[in-house]
Design a protein that fits this description.
single chain, alpha+beta
């Protein structure tokens, strides 16, 4: 006699095979989760290996394919982090060119003008300081040289 466990969602209940239930142990399923994390992938692969039929083990090609997918996932994640860091760095570097310049900033429909006295990078967002207040650098609509400054 086999037993089944169930996973209860907000609107339905689905009976699961004990092997599948074991594979899902420790995996947190969040509402609207559209992909598995690296840890989820490794847990599922480990359970799959532990529960494979000894008379029909997973082929080398199939195992290598899954490992290649995992490797590609890891590399994609690292590349995404690198590109994000590069983007933030470039945004900060380009915003430094506004220092000492007269700018106009679109602040929710109102135009704010003044000289940029500082540049900051906080939580991945580059901001400029104008008239003692910080504004997102992406909202700058006009840049002018200040009188007597040549660059």
């Amino acid at each position: 006699m086999s037993t089944t466990s169930s996973v209860t969602g907000s609107t339905n209940t689905t009976a699961l095979d004990p092997v599948v239930q074991k594979a899902l142990e420790g995996i947190t399923i969040k509402k609207n989760k559209s992909s598995l994390s690296q840890d989820d992938f490794l847990k599922l692969l480990t359970v799959q290996l532990q529960n494979q039929d000894p008379m029909k083990p997973m082929s080398d090609a199939e195992f290598m394919g899954q490992m290649a997918q995992f490797s590609a996932l890891e590399q994609t994640k690292e590349l995404n982090t690198t590109v994000t860091n590069l983007s933030q760095s470039l945004g900060f570097s380009s915003a430094q060119s506004y220092l000492g310049k007269f700018v106009t900033i679109n602040d929710g429909g109102a135009g704010v003008t003044g000289i940029v006295s500082g540049v900051k990078l906080a939580s991945g967002v580059t901001s400029v300081t104008v008239n003692g207040k910080d504004y997102t650098a992406n909202n700058i609509t006009q840049v002018e040289q200040t009188t007597g400054t040549t660059n």
